[in-house]
Amino acid sequence: MTGMQTNSASAAATTPWNHGASHAGDGAGVQSIRSVADTGIPLALLVDLVGKVSLQRGSTCMLGLMAVLKLPLGVLDEVVAFAVRERLMEITHRGALDADVSLRLTDAGTARARESMARCSYVGPAPVTLEDYVQAVHAASVRHQHVNHAFVKDIFHGTTLDTRLLDEVASSLNAGRPLMLFGPSGGGKTYLAERLGLLLQGPVPVPFAICVDSEIIQVFDPLIHETLEGEPLATVCTGMNGHPVARQNAHPNGLETTHPRAGLDVAQAPSVRDRRWQWCKRPVVVTGGELTLDMLEVSFDAAAGFYQAPPHLKANGGIYVIDDFGRQLAPPQALANRWIMPLDRNVDVYTLHTGRRFTVPFDVWTVFSSNFNPWQACDEAFLRRLGCKLFVGPVDVAAYRRIFDAECHRFGMSTEADAFDYLASTLHSLSATPLLACYPRDLLVLVDAECRYQDYPKVVTADLLDEAWRRYFDMTHRPRRIPPDPGPRTGAEGTAHATPFDRH
């Protein structure tokens, strides 16, 4: 898209899926995983994974192992051959095709699989090495992303977001520095932060899991990572013999030269040769008041025997939003101290339960959102590492009108001529209530509910806004709706009670 640029030189650097010699007939200079050595994973760990799959199923076959472990036939042949030699497995059927092989565990293999399952119950795609993961993150770094004004204007065309604020936020992405959005609740900070992912283009490779000292850390999260086209592969699948199998929409020579959404050469695509990786949209991960310091570490499940990656590691290559900063259980300064090194050096350090420490790239565009004044919540050392600090507060009347009209359209409601003027000039002005972006939606929710309850036409009137305002705030926060008749207002119980706004 016009205005979007990526650092192709950096992206073309050696990656875990393009190093090594190419193989004749592959159609592209990409690494093919054809042996256990190519995976970088210890043979013993792969044998345990095969054993656990077989233990769960009672018996298995090569095609079943390929589907679960995401490994090609050549690798599994080597693993199974070792297991058969060690009398851990036996072949119960062999057909004409290499993949038409059925297997089952021997008594010794069953005992080993049960012991392995007791240590670690992970059964799924084989992990990738930490070294390969680090190289992949660097190759697809979010810091290669650059945007310009025309691109941002095109992406956010038709939205009600303030243009000046969008320009300031988008410009901070080019700087590659963290961003702090602060201001009163309801100003639209979270709304803006969650939509910044629209600025990030191209896919990012995400492994199902990584392996550190034979410990498994699960990275891929279906609640966070959205695979492109709903499939793990872009245009090429790995066949049973380890060679690429072109999809119907592929290039006539059998391979497409670019990923359909990235413009990246297949020589840099892990999914072409290694199904342990998924092509995903760049993630946007949001954590709020529930965030604790423990959540920022790799989480070991003693019962399951493997780890879950923390949210900011899952966000690598994308955006990590810390919403409601300052409302977490941990004090703001404690959280700020935790972020000092990652924000400064772009790496984070984790510790396994075995004591092994390792570093992983901190490759995210970090966005803090807070209702607090950052200069009062954190010290100068932390604030200095925030590249941009922007106030998000009340909007002007014109912007407020655009938001109001957009929300009316979303609810399928029309408005009377004087409805908005009454909201802005009377309800807001006389009560000194700022024009925050959240109010049109919140008030129209109540108006819509009242219309449906009373079987009214879906028309926003001053009276309905007046009633919604009363319910949303309180009697002393608003001016009373003044009827056209200036005479005294009485009801069944006599004259209405006066409010501080009646004198207006």
From TrEMBL:
Location of region: Disordered: 1-24, 479-504
Residues covered by the AAA+ ATPase domain: 175-396
Origin: domain of life: Bacteria
Amino acid composition bias (Polar residues), ranges on this chain: 1-17
Protein name: AAA+ ATPase domain-containing protein
Protein's organism: Pandoraea pulmonicola
The organism's taxonomic lineage, starting at the top: Bacteria, Pseudomonadati, Pseudomonadota, Betaproteobacteria, Burkholderiales
